[in-house]
Structures
1.
Amino acid sequence: MTKDKIKIGIMGFGTVGTGAYEILRKNEDALKKQIGAAIIVEKILVKDLNKKRAVFVPDELLTTNADDILENTEIDIVVELMGGVEPAYSYIIKALDNCKHIVTANKELLAKKGNAVFEIADKKGLAVEFEASVCGGVPVIKAFRRTLNTDRINRIMGIVNGTTNYILTKMAEEGSDYEEVLEEAKAKGYAETDPTADVEGYDAAYKMAILASIGFHMNVDINKVSREGISNISKRDIEYGKDLGWTIKLIGMAQEIDGKVEVGVSPMMLPAAHPMATVGGVNNAVFVNSESVGELMFYGPGAGQMPTGNSVASDIVEIAKQIALGNKQLLDCDCNENKEFMDEVHSCYYIRMDVENRPGVFAKIAGVFGNFEVSLESVLQKKTKGESAEIVLITSKVNEKSLKKAVDSIKALDVVNQVFNVIRVEGNGMN
Amino acid sequence: MTKDKIKIGIMGFGTVGTGAYEILRKNEDALKKQIGAAIIVEKILVKDLNKKRAVFVPDELLTTNADDILENTEIDIVVELMGGVEPAYSYIIKALDNCKHIVTANKELLAKKGNAVFEIADKKGLAVEFEASVCGGVPVIKAFRRTLNTDRINRIMGIVNGTTNYILTKMAEEGSDYEEVLEEAKAKGYAETDPTADVEGYDAAYKMAILASIGFHMNVDINKVSREGISNISKRDIEYGKDLGWTIKLIGMAQEIDGKVEVGVSPMMLPAAHPMATVGGVNNAVFVNSESVGELMFYGPGAGQMPTGNSVASDIVEIAKQIALGNKQLLDCDCNENKEFMDEVHSCYYIRMDVENRPGVFAKIAGVFGNFEVSLESVLQKKTKGESAEIVLITSKVNEKSLKKAVDSIKALDVVNQVFNVIRVEGNGMN
């Protein structure tokens, strides 16, 4: 009934795959004892058989043919670490068809195709584990699926992208401009040559879709996840935020209010005392507010070969233990409810603009906001330069759609030269 | 093969039991969907059948006879929430003998008898889940057992007792004395009428024994866990700590160096920038340093009816899912290695004493430290009052045993009136 060897196939052998392989190898004896069976890496799918690798891997393990894994009847678990939707998606479907359990770190695939994957896996009693897909080494996925599953989560806030958090932290610490820090981040390897996926919030949006799907037990349509990156944040916004006691972070926000959800990613102003405000550098954190438990935070390394590799290894071991015990049906994902997205999001906002420096301008601007039922908490004149003045407005908690309409009208005013930025303000006691 | 009703018996129906019962009841439909079976509370062991309860419970569920649960062949899971070693231990053993899975929140029992419990459970393929035993609603136990199990943990630091953290936070915020804040904590229900278990570190020691056992996969002898409480901490220590940029916390420390472990609880000075230093009030946090993942922190409510109740409920659901899937053998604890405790702990220390205010005193004191190979980083004169002076000494990283011997000799010096406190200093970059 039980097995003494659990065989795995690894698809994709880059940074994370190498890390997971190393962890399994280094801790071989301890894991064998824990599992009651040995984990055997049977095959590794690579692009280039002759590539020089950082770790020693016997030649006979390497293959360029996916079917050596997908159609290998010896293999119990397929570990997909290729990234991107295709061919990873087709491989995972084929692996499930062939009754293999899945471990994946692929956030884009899960965000775009997770539901299809989970549906097949659930029907067949196969496990899909994906701890490494969100927050690298921080075990948020298991916490959501295994502890908070008995609770009702109201709100999830995440700093889930290390690159942007590094950039914003550096900008705040050094008073530097975005472009300057981005170049530095590229040089240090914290940002890709094409940084779009990170700085425009795509990566964070995928991760928030995953957290929302397991947190709210729902099928999240990635197209409904709102997304705004940090490329428009200037050092002046950071400086003015600081004056107000706030820190700017790229925040993934998922909340459920009266059965409707909001899932999105955008820069937000957080009060400096908020636990998320102090999460610096490339670190990640997830903050949860739930009905029974209240406020929880998970904090740690959001990326990196060994932290992310450990999440992959722990998923493999989790499944291997069940197989070794002879258990046939593994846990399903329970994220298939259909929930509506909110029509209206309410929040406070920070707005920075350049206006003409003459009497009556404030009254005109305030009048437009009033017309759209956007009430203002404060208007701060930050800087005057001859005929123009830079001002910052803070709204009360308002309807985002009304705010956007108001801002569009404000932009059309002849006394307004430019609206630089509109940034959500969260957790300051006002909302 | 599979079951559509999972029956549980709850032993002890105080705060946590009531919370767990409420969570299972309120989320009944959602949980049934997740599990694929209904959780039925079959019996609840209480002391007094006629006690007025905060929640509605049908009379026929209540019993004062433990065997109505332990010998009930219908019951799959026994949820032990009585606290204390006996009769809880005998009940758990009997439940295991009768092939029931165990959920417990009983830290004292696990710290003192956990190994015996795990041994029987492992042999029989029965689960023992204990998320609620450490840090209330914060899912550290599952994180340790299910994600960090593939990693090698070097160090665990925990703020695992809410009462003492509340007292120290208040003392720091208000500059109040220990006794004063303790009375206030009692009035608010944050401290027991007899606060010994909390303020003298017993509660924290039990929790650290549990974390060390699952973190280092070892059998921890609770008698080897060092323990020092906070009743000796004065507002002056807090004030002087603040001057040095440090915060005093009651820290549970478990570390493994070269295969030998240290497990203990004592007040420690932490740099204000340390993530644990900002954990305030009754909150709990666990900070982990491990080989692959690096630094992780878990933060949240360490007590309370609903947070702790949720941890109990999630453990029940975890086991129920496996039963519902027809899985017979559940995961074991893997904490049975024998590891030696360290003979020597090395750290920096803060020492506050009252000495005679005359020339040559510093030289005498420094001479004694020198004799015991304890080197000093700094000596600060804090306050003079006629013929006496209060001084604070900070040592380099030294052997704790040598330090204690040195302090004993210092106490015997005629120029030393009193040694008030010796407090470990951690994570300040010096060690």
2.
Amino acid sequence: MTYERDNIRAMQGYTSGEQPDDARTIKLNTNENPYPPAPGVSEALRAFDPIDLRRYPPATARPLRTQIAALHGLAEDEVIATRGGDELLRLLITTFVEPGRAIGTTRPSYSLYGVLAAIHDSPVFEVDLTDDFGLPADFAADCNRNDCALTLIVNPHAPSGRLFSAEEIRAVASESKGVVLVDEAYVDFVDPGIRYDVLPLLREFDNLIVLRTLSKGYSLAGLRLGYGLGPASLIQPMLQKTRDSYNLDAVSQVIAASALADQTYARSTWEKVRSERVRMESALQGLGFTTWPTQTNFLLAKVPDDGPSAADVYAHLKNRGVLVRFFGTAGMDDKLRVTVGTPDENQRLLNLLNELYGTSTAEGH
Amino acid sequence: MTYERDNIRAMQGYTSGEQPDDARTIKLNTNENPYPPAPGVSEALRAFDPIDLRRYPPATARPLRTQIAALHGLAEDEVIATRGGDELLRLLITTFVEPGRAIGTTRPSYSLYGVLAAIHDSPVFEVDLTDDFGLPADFAADCNRNDCALTLIVNPHAPSGRLFSAEEIRAVASESKGVVLVDEAYVDFVDPGIRYDVLPLLREFDNLIVLRTLSKGYSLAGLRLGYGLGPASLIQPMLQKTRDSYNLDAVSQVIAASALADQTYARSTWEKVRSERVRMESALQGLGFTTWPTQTNFLLAKVPDDGPSAADVYAHLKNRGVLVRFFGTAGMDDKLRVTVGTPDENQRLLNLLNELYGTSTAEGH
């Protein structure tokens, strides 16, 4: 017999991007930062005394939360540190969504949202983005009409890369009757000239939470460290009640602290990614791809109409050692999502595409 | 306004044992192993290349699971690696318990069980143990009558230290209509002469899961690494569906592997703890404490009737730099739970108790 709950039996788990064992594969498929973590991470690892592992770690990661609070000009009780952004998403659902009540998001969006909702036995209410991945004006009203207890907005948006403005987020927070999460997994790659910043809104609304992660901006996807920022009334129930009692191990807390301490290094990687993003955008357009404006470390690119399908291009690249992401879902089956790598990695991709499309427009490097 | 679900608003979070910042405090309150982790852990930390943190970790911790499976003579699909035992407990509830259905356990038991049930909005059905912390014969029948979807048995038992036999576990698994979890957090400290082993039962029943942790036996409480062993039909839904998509970071996976690889070292710490356990038992009895037979790395000790209360003894020891655990709950308010430390730590505790009780029965060391 089966002991699974009906909703668990009926659901599919999250599909991670491919993680090949082959170190030579160029991985432009899971939006990892192409540069190593800060030099201080290496020192923190070397300096860590293993005997400290004998004891339980700081349960609420207080030293790390103090550091994060200072970084953002917030109070310590407005910060929760979590095992990747994923844990924060789960805690939001556990804490604020009665099973069966809807969770609102956009279509398309980060595919994990639907998986977490299915685990919780809650429906997902998806609002279609506009043709150019814009947020419809009636988004919050639609979510309210469907009694959404929680609304999840990834901003900059995945998988398009588009940035919604702080004014748009403000409008959603203001109008929403439930909790609103702005998933800023990719925010570090936003052009600073845009002056995007939703953190001041945390002082204005009691229903707004912001998610950050060290996975991308700090080159620490392997560490699983994220955090949530928001009013204490939303943060504290997750921190004191629904979080696993020791959710962050002692090593991770120390490594995260060392990475966050070196903002200069982190910013240098963001700058390099932005610079390559511009080059890739122009090169892909030169090959006949359609791209969308992106403020992330990836580009969404529609393959040229008169060439091979996106599925075929994906397979062709994979056979030659370059992984990109092909979703194949409705509206996405003519597109590839390409992570911005190092200049060499990006050039390898462009060279392969040049061969495939028989052109010679690639810029030298 | 509050956005918390009603059940979350009404509940209290888990209360961790005190973790003083003062390194001089002798911590005999949270059942940590008093010895450092295996020498290989230090080497694994030094050898870890920080650039590996740039990429996502192995999502299902496959290399580690292969090693754990080999250690126990099981197949890889019968193993899930989790962030401490705590994550496994949560996954069991999420996967197998419809909210509102009961979770069975003993009274007393590990206090986290009730907290996790409250988060899930499920009642806990508690069956009183016998006066000497034995499992009542009608335990499973009682759980069935209360429609328990999951039964949680910590064995050896906490906070008493008593070991239920494999035959008793077999009877519970055989009779239970729901899933049965044997939480073997302390199993490494069981006297090998007893030949306790429930793993063969995993071949016999489709509803039995065993929890293990590296927190105590491998001196890695700070690492947050546990695992579940059971039939693939129970393990796979948790591994593939309800687990956070990357639940274990890359460093933890490697450190855990290095600790598990050195069974000789781990066993040497278990042997030392067992030897001190015997000494402590006899010394505490000599001071007038009542103790219960324990197969763990702690002792439950009732204070002498004609002396200060357990609360007072706890406070007296704490003032002098020795922390033990005082629960103060019904049936426990005349008892202290004392972790077995190093010979020096234990002697410091005994010296303080000798002073308090004005005797001179302490053995030298």
